[in-house]
Amino acid sequence: MLLINRKLIELAKPSAKWIFAMVFVKLALLFTVMYIFGITGKVQGLLYTQELTPQLLFNAIMVMSLIALVRFIGNLIDGELAYKCSADLRIDLRHKIYKKMLELGIGYSERMGTTNAVTASVDGIEALETYFSKYLPALIYCFIAPFVLFFRMTGSAPEAAWVLLVASLIVLPINQLFRKVVRLLKGEYWSRFNKLNTYYYDSLEGLNTFVLYDSDEKRREDLSKKCWDFRDITMKVLRLNFNSVIISEMIIYISSAIAIVFISQNFVAGGFGFGRAIFLLLLADTFFAPVRDLMSTGHSAMNGVAAAENVFGLLKLKSDRENLVSTDVQGTSEKSGFVLDQVGFQYGQDRQILKNISMKVERGKVTAIVGQSGCGKSTIANLLMRFYDANSGTVYLDGQDIKTQDPQQIHKKVCIVPQNTYIFTGTILDNLKMAKTDATVEEMMKALDMVNLSSFVNLQPEGLDTNIGERGGKLSGGQKQKLGIARAILMDADIYIFDEATSNVDVESEDDIWECIGKLARNNTLVVISHRLSTIRKADCIYVMDKGEIKESGSHNSLMKKRGLYSYMVNEQESLEGLFEGGELCVS
Amino acid sequence: MSVEKNNGKMSGYQIMKRLARQIKPVSGYMGLCITGGILGQLTILGTLVAGVGIICSLAGIEMILNTGQWMIVLFACALLRGPSRYLEQYFGHHVAYKLLAIMRVDLYDNLRKLSPAKMLDKKNGDVVSTAISDIECIEIFFAHTVAPIVIAIVITCLSLILCAVIWPMVALVMLPFYVIIGIVIPIFSARSGRDTGRAYRSLLGDLKSCLIDSLKGIKEVIVFGKGEQQLSTIDKKGRAINEVLHKLIRHRNFVMALPDFGRTLSRVAVMAICSYGMMIGEVGIGGAAVLMVVLASSFTPVIAISSLSGSLLQTFAAAERVFALEDEAPQVAEPAKPRKIGQKSGEICISNIDFAYPSRPNQIIRDFTMEAKNGEKIAFIGESGSGKSTALHLLLRYWDPDKGEIRVGGTNIKDVSLKDCRNHYAMLSQDTWLMNDTIEENIKIGNPDASHEEVVEAAKRACIHEFIENLPDGYQSNAGEMGSRLSGGERQRIGIARVCLRDTPIMILDEPTSSLDTLNEKSILKTLYTEFKDRTIITVSHRASTVAGCDRVYRLDTH
């Protein structure tokens, strides 16, 4: 099979000079081979006619040793060039992929799974090395070398030269009959490779769950099936590849045999001497070396080609969010906070999540959004951050349509603390610096103090440099969330959105966080989303949501007087707190 | 299996020995592959010998066979070449990919034993990289190393015999070339590049972990405007990889240039010795022609080994990473003679246990004692970091306590098989993990044999049935894809549904209601405390409402 991919070749353009330099080195090496064969043939001829003198032999030995050295150097140069072929290219591609992910935003994982993106940008892109630095040069060389050899042979053995040339020109197109392999590679092979990767990753993430529920045996069976599926498709691709190899080898060796017969005929006819006959025999044998070289590189270049399609597909994805041109009528200096005007939203073709939402987040005030889970509270937060754009209606930030504002600019003003703040692998310091690269130790400790985490950090022998494991795995849920909030405080944003910020933490951390939110409320604009009603009583305005709609709004007192949904929920919660009698307290 | 530990570093020989052991069950196929390989090499040499034979016999030199017979040999070799190569390639890869699939599953089996204690310190991205990419690298050993080594040995022996038949001196002169190219250079190159190969594989794993982190945390990256910074980190890692790759390629080409150099010198040597032999009358012109033409080609398999040693660097490094994971011992040992848990299986008795995490200095649990009778509802409370969850983990035998013992149903859990021990509990952990499958399958993790009706019943108990029904695809909706859209409360209720599917005497709930709103909390608590009346339930919670219904409350203090 020939692995020719137009997009990949286009990609190789910046490296063209290195690739052609490699072809040049290969050709130079070919000339050394022909020179060696020439000397071998000459010596044979002289031996045959018994004319070889020790002096001639000595000369031949010296020249051939010199050529050996030249070849050695040539091979080393080849390596340097090989590296250059793909070095910048691979870094550049990886850069582009992550940039694309940033552009797609938090919805990227629905368009392209995480493991998929990671596999493409690590394994896939590394596999391209072979394609650019071995396969492409070998491919180009394959189209030139036969002609060089042809012109060397055609003078003495024209029939053999023609047979070999025609055969080597046929071999490549015949390989194209197997281009189905390439299709298979891009499609099924890569997708199963990906599935295996994703599935394995998933199986590790959930390993603890599987073991606890005794489902690990079943998971193992399914994983095993995926492993064998991948093995089957690999063999399918390879079988096709081997079929192409077997046909090529047949053509190569049969035409070589025919060429040898022609050479011996010319020899008998007296066209040339014994030495030249041996020389031609050696040339005929080496005629197909470039093609064989190409075929043996094919196997290792396969993964790169398979991955490439994926990388290109990934780079082609478009963001849902379109930036409108900034109209800038009212000016950006206005500080009117958020205004939502009849906003509707749904993810793709899913059910409508938000219907006709109109609300105000006034600067300097605390706005709360409450409601049962699934009512669309968090979706509003996503719209405020412009992670998604509303399907209908308009979201204004400081008097301007949010669609005319660059998300990066929005994020300088507005910061969100989600339910499960993501903690990055590394140290506490690394995580804090995410929010403010040049934060001083004092600033960081102050932020940690706000969430009552500074004493914990001080207790650690390594302080801020304490490694907190993969995704903060060595911290408790509460500590992770508090660290996430300290990080958000370092951002020093105008508006903070707390999206169920305390729902996954223990009671002490919850107290710490609410205390911190109380302090922040003095100087900042806050949006607090919660289902714990007791926590947002003091909010300036409470929006009560149900099934994607706003049912009521107002202060705690006014809502309680209404005796609507809000007061019903508050009473439910209060009665629940007293539902069970306390048990005997044992102190350990 | 002996643990060959030296910082996890193994010699190339140890790695090859251990990998070779894996081949045993498929040695028949390997034999076919080797046969094909030897046949293939013989046809290559045969073509050349026949060519020389034809020319020589036409030139009137005595060559054993006549011209016509050499022609037959020539075409026989040409025809055999394709099929023999197919045989070699097909069976070589057949064996390789079979073994890779087996290795991947075996690795997972060991990881299962390591979970959860030993898995905490590992980066999943790194482990996946080992399980998929590193194991894929080992293909080079199974499909491209084992057979070529045998083929090279056989072809070398045959070539030396051919030399010896023509003139023993030639064999003597050639021997060092075979030894240097086939043995000395590969060993030298494998040794000299080991660290580079290791560095490359580990940098790839590192980049993967970094990318996974940057992608899973993309929300934070975007919110904090750190996209550019992450990009430059990724670029930096890419450049570090390139630096190592540069070394690796340089090494690869050096170890490929060396044997090529050797082969060209061997041509010089053959030419010299044959000419000398002819001058002193030891070698005929036919013999000289055959040797000068054919011997250089007999190096092909030997050179294949040399050029492999470059790729083998990565393979060795990859195999090392695989073995390191395979050899890791679990945190807790299976009992030699497992016993069954006794009659009153809901009874728990924890007496005077101490515990400190292996890598951390402070003792997290000190002299903790606790007792629960069948059907009792117990709560653990305490500040964060006081060891509430740790106590649950000791009960599940993630770790063993340093002092004291834990008895369930009267049996020390150390004497029970890990499987029986964990099957004794239904555990709800703090974070509910959802797999990339339908919601129904996710609930069924609790009991893979459950019927659809049972799943629905469990979902109703967990107050999540209505929510699921409202999804476009109901129970068949994919939970993984929606993972980011499901709220913490929804995930938690799926977790509770899982627990409800499990029929075990003891339930362990780690913060079961932390992300539930009031209405759901109320009905779920009612379900747990009434419908599971006869089960022992241990709850860790910070909520007064959740803990209030319990029979006894234990407070753990931070030490």
Written account of the structure:
The complex is a heterodimer of chains A (588) and B (559). Chain A contains 20 helices and 11 strands. Chain A has 2 domains: 311 residues, ABC transporter type 1, transmembrane domain (ABC transporter transmembrane region fold); 237 residues, Rossmann fold, CATH 3.40.50.300. Chain B has 20 helices and 9 strands. Chain B has a 5-stranded parallel β-sheet, with helices on both faces. In chain B, helix 2 runs antiparallel to helix 3 and helix 6 packs antiparallel against helix 7.
**Mass-distribution shape of chain A:** elongated
Residue share in helix of chain B: 55-70%
Greatest chain-chain contact: A-B, 178 and 178 residues
At the fourth level of CATH, the homologous superfamily of the largest domain in chain B is ABC transporter type 1, transmembrane domain
**Which residues of chain B sit in consecutive blocks of at least 5 with pLDDT less than 50?**
1-6
Tally of helical runs of chain A: 20
Rg measurement of chain A, Å: 36 Å
Distance between the termini of chain A: 72 Å
Short précis:
By secondary structure, chain A is α/β, with parallel strands linked by helices. Chain A has helices spanning 6-11, 16-48, 54-104, 108-111, 114-153, 158-176, 180-205, 207-212, 216-268, 274-286, 289-316, 377-384, 407-413, 428-435, 441-450, 454-459, 477-491, 507-523, 556-562, 565-577; strands spanning 338-346, 352-361, 366-371, 392-397, 400-401, 414-417, 495-499, 525-530, 541-546, 549-554, 584-587. Chain B is built from 20 helices and nine strands.
Please tag this protein with its features.
heterodimer; A: 588 residues; alpha/beta; ABC transporter transmembrane region fold; Rossmann fold; 2 domains; 6-stranded mixed sheet; 4-stranded antiparallel sheet; 20 helices; 11% strand; B: 559 residues; 5-stranded parallel sheet; disordered N terminus
Topology overview:
The complex is a heterodimer of chains A (588) and B (559).
Chain A: H1 6-11, H2 16-48, H3 54-104, H4 108-111, H5 114-153, H6 158-176, H7 180-205, H8 207-212, H9 216-268, H10 274-286, H11 289-316, E1 338-346, E2 352-361, E3 366-371, H12 377-384, E4 392-397, E5 400-401, H13 407-413, E6 414-417, H14 428-435, H15 441-450, H16 454-459, H17 477-491, E7 495-499, H18 507-523, E8 525-530, E9 541-546, E10 549-554, H19 556-562, H20 565-577, E11 584-587
Helix pairs in contact in A: 2-3, 2-5, 2-10, 3-5, 5-6, 5-7, 5-11, 6-9, 7-9, 7-11, 9-10, 14-17, 15-17, 17-18
Chain B: H1 12-23, H2 27-58, H3 67-114, H4 124-137, H5 139-144, H6 146-166, H7 168-192, H8 194-216, H9 218-223, H10 227-279, H11 285-294, H12 300-327, E1 348-356, E2 363-372, E3 377-382, H13 388-395, E4 403-408, E5 411-412, H14 418-422, E6 425-428, H15 439-444, H16 452-461, H17 465-470, H18 488-501, E7 506-510, H19 518-531, E8 536-540, H20 544-547, E9 552-556
Parallel strand pairs in B: 3-8, 3-9, 6-7, 7-8
Antiparallel strand pairs in B: 1-2, 1-4, 4-5
Helix pairs in contact in B: 2-3, 2-6, 2-11, 3-4, 3-12, 4-8, 4-12, 6-7, 6-12, 7-10, 7-12, 8-10, 8-12, 10-11, 10-12, 16-18
